[in-house]
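so the lab meeting is tmrw and i was supposed to have these ready like two days ago... anyway. pasting both below. for each one the top line is the aa sequence and the line under it is the structure tokens. i havent really looked at them closely yet so no promises
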Amino acid sequence: MRTGAALDPGRINTFGSIQNPTFQARTKPPQCLKRHSFLRFPQRNRTGRWISREGDSRSLTCEVKAVLDTVRADEFSSSVGNPAVSTSYRNPNFRRPNQTVWEAQGKVCTGPTQTRPLSEEQAFKVLDTILRSARGELKDDEDPVSKSQLGAFFAAMTIRANTFPESTQWSEGERLAMNYYWPQLMQALSPDIIFLADPEGSLMGTGSSVGPQFVGNVPSEMRLVGALREVLAGGHLGYEEVQGVLKDVLPLKLQDLGSDSVSESLLSAFLIGQRMNRETDRELKAYCLAFDDELGPAPVADVKSLTHYGEPYDGNTRFFKSMLFVAAVRSCYGESCLLHGVDWMPPKGGITEEQMLRFMGANTHLSPSQAKQLLEDAEVGFAYVSQREAHPSLYSLVRLREHIKKRPPLATSEKVQQIVRNRGRESIVAGFYHDGYEEPLLMLMRRRGVHSGLVVKGEEGALSMTTKSRSVNASKGIPVNYCSGFRTLNLSPADALDGVSRETFTMEVDARNHGFEPTDTPRTDRSVMPLVLLFNCL
């Protein structure tokens, strides 16, 4: 029988091996729940899971504490281990990127139509900063330019010069600055950076042999350098080639602990270069599937249905983030739900599900096997798994991803994961923001072999839709609340890759058609607490 045990604050303590602080349970709902303003459901659904009912002493509005070590109310905002602001979750051991070069990366490390060439003043400032950093001449208040930044910046400049349309190739100011500084930079930069800036020895007009002769400094770099020659020329790679590179160089170490470590400049160049060239389906599939079995085969749950939710790992910085609570409510109706993400991720560094769970006292160190147990538990049906626990090799890239500034291909592929598989029906739901990524996401879902897939253009690229009416001045392109997906009519996941009938659909959800009046979405910026309180007060 599914009872209030689904909300039992002590359930997670059965996993004794988990290294996470244990808190006292908050046994009473927040004061705002005592008003008759929250969602009301029948006492129990057909599966036996208890759900809240007006006047029922068990009513906690579907706060799924089965995955929470809940905290006392007086610890809600004061616990050092559960900070309330998203920026507090950034690893303090990460060195900050140099701001001058980082801002320039935001302009040049992007696509053929989005790139904004630097002005002469900007280009001279950036290259001067790089030169002074290489010589150890920066001021005390300036952060050094990291290898990751150098790799991303010079790879972007090379790709722009080789393959971009004239409007986003080098500006006249960039050419003047490069002609002035390159002879000095060649004397100060390491061979890997010179290779990225001039792989064929012809781009800078110096006839240097460093780029053409570079093969890498350690064995693990050799395949990466070969792949980079193709990427820097605007080319694409095969599925096995991308997977081979990733498995050669990951996981990264927080510190360079030995001569066998791969140069972060090369890996940064590879990641940002593939994004600038716009990844092919083969390349995206390689990123998506490369580390599926890193910790062994994914556990297989035995539940009626399982929905995987994938939102941007870098979180929200402006609007209400609702998917954690939606998944919790759905689990109360017998629809098992699995969320995944990280504690903190660049470039936005916004609020994530993991931050919200930690703020509420959650145990965010569940292994995939422990998540499977919760999904199968007749009184729970809900779990969250961190990338840190499921795919540590990919999680090791967080620091590097901050320094490359822009989103790499992983920002797309990591949303379509099957950390736990299921014997019954499976669905994947993922959010997106930038036009053009809806079809690649659906392609990855079909490749996963699930019965149904859905992509949603929610606010900030998350899954949260808005009730706000679309402005007449809204930009062109796919509107917020746009959805696209497929349903497999043949229920066998093994047959879902090809030769199976699928029903596809697209729609734009208008809240007014569902009885909602247009309203502005609550803004929470980078604070976790308003999100939790907004849900509690529904």
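ok protien two:
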Amino acid sequence: MSTSKQRLSRLDSPRREVLAPADAELLQALLDELRPGARIAMVGCDSPGLLQALEEAGHPVLSFTLPEGTGPLEVPAEHEQLRSFHAELVLLGDGWLRAADPAMSLARTLQHASAAEIAVSFYNAASGNTLIAALTGDKALPRFTCCEEQVTRWLATAGLRLQRRQVLQQTSASGLLARGTERALHRLFQQLNPGASAHRLLLWSRPARASERVPERALIPGMLSVVMRNHSLKRLDLIDQAIFSLACQDYTQLEIIMVTQSQDPQAVATLTAILERHQPVGDYTFQVLHRPSDTDIRAQLVNTGLKAARGQYVAVLDDDDVVYPQHYKRLIDVLREGEAAWAISKVRRAYFRTAPNGELYCRGKDELPRSGKFELHQLVRENNITCHSWVVDRARLGRFPVGFAEELSLHEDYAFLLRLAALFRPALVEGTATCEYRMRDDGTNSILFGGNATVQAEKHRAWAASTALINALKRNLQVLLTEHDLEMEAEKVRAAVEDAKREPLEAGQRAVDMLNAPRFVLIDRANLAVKEHLPRAHRAVKLALSSLLR
């Protein structure tokens, strides 16, 4: 049974309550948001100091303390108290989590304070500090904790819309472990779940209008969502080929999410028409999302598509590349047969030139070199994985954030792969290449290939700036490695260094061998004979050749 006490006077007790440091942060957050004199109902906030401080700040307070295992407002008299109090804010404290059914308790509270804003204060069960305290058996572990995702679900189920998220306490060094070890664990936890950086949270919500209520959407098992990003309608022929390659996939439980930043008013209609034209071949579903922009928002386009994706599996395909019919089936088969969270296929590079009439034609293809095993040190050294060569199984990632770094206009997919590979090793698809990375000589690729001198100079500047950001990410990335894995990676690095040392020597030896070849020996002897017996002719030929080389 819960008990309540209504306090409307500024001071009910001559005794000065002590405000705990953690509650001081909560108090400041409340005072920053509330209007003067706002009426507050506190549910499960076992802090006399906080209650007194709010009263002293001029806020009428109605407080319900909750014995463990009970829910708020279980006594009819309390229902009337809350209803007649007309609270502008209901603050749910840690004690709310003691209820046998917090979701039911929240619903019951809302019945009697339907117009109030709801704020929930709690310690995050997934914070680095909470996890380290639990692992070390520390007595300072908060007694009542909850995962942010669970609280958010309770709010949504109750018909509330999350308005803002405040971090009252960030994770910090606790001294329970050696500083370096604790720092490494904090980084690891935050890479797996960014929410691990928040130790204590305050979530603000209000009743959602019918139009604002978004039902929780579970991933569709087995579905593959392919996100395509599009910048303009200037290369519709390439877009058409990319979509046709998706329509021809052997894996048929497929949705295409096209996200375009084109400012052309007909962009959505044009892209929809292409998708509809190929739909009878592939029987896929599709969405076209429009985010018009005059700047390059390539990472934002992918993230927009990923948020809309419904599939258990996700992939990214640029609108100028293609995938072969067996591509996604082989990737997903490898995932289903194993335990990995993502898989990579082999890639074929296709080199395109621009004909005099402006049309592109393929002048040749080769396979992107790759060893039979995933080698982390190679990925750390440079990005050797194209963005359309992988598929991710989101059901095996937990709270790991699947998304590209929007602060990067280049290397955005590389940053994601570094974060992913640090915690999850991929499976590899054996056999021949199953997708095609198209490189054009007109400079329209973002890579350092093709284009005139001006285009090349601009690309070099952009890549240099992006590389600096990537290097900063690498310096702070925590990697999961067994000692055996570390030894193997170190051996691969040593071998690569030795190969690099030998290469100049081998190249020099090849040059010596070439100069010692019979045809070069004959030419050298002929040159010496002409110089000795026909010096004038030799000088004339030498001057003529020198003028040609200027």
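from a quick look at the 2nd one: DSSP finds 17 helices and 19 strands in the chain. The radius of gyration is 32 Å. will dig more after coffe
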